[in-house]
Amino acid sequence: xxxxxxxxxxxxxxxxxxxxxxxxxxxxxxxxxxxxxxxxxxxxxxxxxxxxxxxxxxxxxxxxxxxxxxxxxxxxxxxxxxxxxxxxxxxxxxxxxxxxxxxxxxxxxxxxxxxxxxxxxxxxxxxxxxxxxxxxxxxxxxx
Length: 143
Description:
The protein is mainly β. Helix content is 9%, strand content 39%. Strand 6 and strand 7 (88-89) form a beta hairpin.
């Protein structure tokens, strides 16, 4: 009974299992892969730029896996496929493949972060990205 209760609490609230669906984080995370969302990752610290996070859409059943590229009050833009934060080009070694994104500068609202996937070869119109409230961040992938 104790083992079952411990496993229930652990996998319901601390290490939430999830399946990666889609290619938005390729090549860092592959479509169909399994991982765990570690919900205690930001218990004592805030997420920072370049962290990969899980974002709650509707409960814990639908979550996005994205990378934080800008924090509140930062200005973020894409120019000819390059990410600029506060008018400085950000090196992104985790991004592979061609990217031709263009997005005018925008300022991240207080209490929000700007998230985007690593697979920038996907056209912007088919990619879920943008500002999200910090309180929607559930945790980070375990590996």
